[in-house]
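Re: [ENG-882] Designed sequences occasionally contain unexpected residues at chain ends

Forwarding the minimal case from QA. Structure tokens:
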């Protein structure tokens, strides 16, 4: 018997009297978890038939209808006036490449750069036609963090100018703080606050989150924003007339008249030195955007709590259903199936719901199962949900997000992003003790995982949240270095059409993700006190008030 099978068998035997720190878990819930069900749901959701599940497409509608029927089969209570459907109004924007242009003005001479080779634009979600000509100012990472004794804007005036910044944050910051200050919404709002009228961003040569080719492919599919009641795009950055991403292979063009070499710039930021200065050139940006209205949607089901006083408090589980649809071909395949990202998360979420429904008695607090849209385009569905919570008398107290958690090998340890910030660390300890799992730190702070999935939408609303990935510990018979293979997956398969079911998924490991997320939520739902931020915590201080 393999070690993972032995662990599972022991777990079920212990299920007769499964108790840790005063909490007991009925064996029915853990026994109900079915790895084959995870595989079945993933197989359907990532099939070519669904054409990559981009919001607003028939493929997404088919995926959503399938999940809705699973909500019905599980007996989840509809959350929105007898319906599971929460409408999410979206604006889709695609840059009209042939009508858009980017030029550098250097000592009176204009150099027109090649779109897709040197630079691309983000759609302008406020104005379909936007033009700007302004001086360039380099602002390092574009970070203002007085609480961390760091300020890229110290002594520099950017009013009426286009700021040039790196797509990163100082390595000296803690892992999750670094992720927070890498977030474009935080950076762009800081630039707007200081009077900037445009942004040009580029990546460090060492940044392996995405290749330039992948960035261009993704941009061609357009992007989305959700619309408020006045049909204004949320985080549309109205004051920024142009937002451009520059190919770092040509970043030296931006510094050609500054008196500084790009190597010097990289050395300073590597040393965490705030380094801002005028670039002594200007840029002319002409951004033309085509709009389309898309009626997006979330699905929200409820498992009502059993305690009369606590049932109006909700532990929210969330997983995103969307992916990138049909796009630029890679290896003669143009359907971005999104099997691991994130048919896996939705499949695991449905099994979590199955486990809760298998309980002889519901937990004290209520459970929400939310399948959301638009994560790939900026956490849109979860952000809309968190800002438009559909249960008016209810209160969200915790969130667990499920998003490509990694199960290409047996799960012996987890990385619980967010656990160090709140009392949810207690429930993580309880669950991992039962499942004999180790807890590991963030192995790749430079990947800024903490701001890249739906849990961050809840954190911004002051709600303690977790996002659990597997670690790299392996059983003796596994000869693969998982720290390398998982990183290789991100650089070769992630966000490509090759993320389909022709991958060596371990569905027993997927079931382990169900178990750990279920147990954490179960313990949280039965705890006497709702989760709280740790005293003095960075995110609790930012959002917890």
């Amino acid at each position: 018997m393999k070690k993972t099978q032995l662990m599972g068998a022991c777990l079920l035997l212990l299920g007769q009297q499964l108790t840790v720190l005063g909490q007991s878990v009925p064996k029915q819930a853990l026994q109900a978890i079915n790895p084959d069900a995870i595989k079945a749901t993933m197989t359907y959701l990532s099939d070519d038939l669904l054409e990559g599940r981009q919001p607003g497409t028939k493929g997404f509608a088919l995926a959503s209808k399938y999940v809705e029927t699973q909500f019905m089969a599980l007996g989840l209570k509809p959350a929105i006036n007898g319906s599971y459907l929460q409408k999410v109004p979206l604006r889709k924007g695609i840059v009209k490449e042939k009508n858009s242009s980017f030029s550098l003005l250097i000592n009176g001479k204009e150099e027109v750069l090649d779109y897709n080779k040197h630079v691309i634009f983000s759609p302008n979600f406020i104005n379909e036609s936007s033009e700007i000509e302004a001086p360039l100012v380099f602002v390092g990472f574009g970070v203002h963090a007085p609480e961390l004794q760091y300020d890229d804007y110290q002594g520099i005036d950017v009013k009426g100018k286009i700021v040039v910044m790196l797509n990163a944050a100082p390595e000296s910051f803690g892992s999750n703080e670094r992720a927070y200050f890498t977030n474009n919404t935080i950076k762009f709002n800081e630039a707007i606050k200081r009077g900037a009228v445009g942004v040009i961003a580029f990546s460090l040569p060492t940044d392996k989150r995405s290749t330039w080719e992948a960035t261009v492919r993704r941009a061609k599919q357009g992007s989305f924003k959700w619309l408020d009641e006045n049909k204004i795009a949320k985080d549309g950055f109205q004051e920024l007339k142009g937002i451009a991403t520059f190919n770092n292979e040509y970043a030296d063009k931006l510094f050609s008249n500054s008196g500084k070499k790009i190597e010097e710039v990289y050395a300073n930021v590597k040393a965490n030195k705030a380094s801002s200065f005028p670039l002594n050139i200007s840029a002319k940006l002409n951004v033309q955007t085509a709009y389309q209205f898309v009626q997006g949607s979330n699905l929200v089901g409820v498992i009502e709590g059993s305690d009369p006083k606590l049932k109006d408090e909700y532990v929210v589980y969330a997983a995103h259903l969307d992916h990138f649809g049909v796009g630029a071909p890679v290896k003669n395949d143009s359907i971005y199936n999104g099997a691991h990202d994130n048919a896996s998360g939705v499949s695991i979420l449905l099994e979590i719901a199955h486990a809760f429904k298998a309980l002889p008695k519901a937990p004290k607090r209520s459970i929400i199962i939310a399948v959301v849209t638009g994560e790939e385009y900026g956490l849109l569905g979860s952000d809309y949900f968190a800002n438009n919570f559909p249960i008016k008398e209810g209160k969200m107290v915790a969130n667990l997000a499920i998003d490509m958690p990694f199960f290409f090998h047996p799960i012996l340890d987890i990385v619980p992003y967010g656990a160090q910030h709140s009392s949810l660390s207690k429930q993580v300890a309880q669950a991992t003790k039962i499942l004999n799992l180790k807890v590991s730190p963030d192995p790749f702070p430079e990947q800024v995982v903490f701001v890249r999935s739906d849990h961050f939408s809840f954190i911004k609303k002051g709600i303690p949240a977790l996002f659990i990935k597997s670690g790299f510990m392996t059983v003796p018979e596994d000869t693969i270095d998982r720290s390398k293979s998982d990183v290789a997956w991100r650089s070769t398969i992630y966000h490509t059409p090759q993320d389909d079911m022709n991958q060596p998924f371990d569905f027993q490991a997927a079931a382990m993700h169900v178990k750990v997320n279920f147990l954490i939520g179960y313990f949280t739902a039965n705890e006497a006190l709702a989760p709280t931020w740790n005293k003095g915590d960075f995110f609790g201080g930012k959002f917890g008030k």
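QA comment: On inspection the terminal residues look reasonable. The chain has 15 helices and 23 strands. Proposing we downgrade this to a documentation issue.
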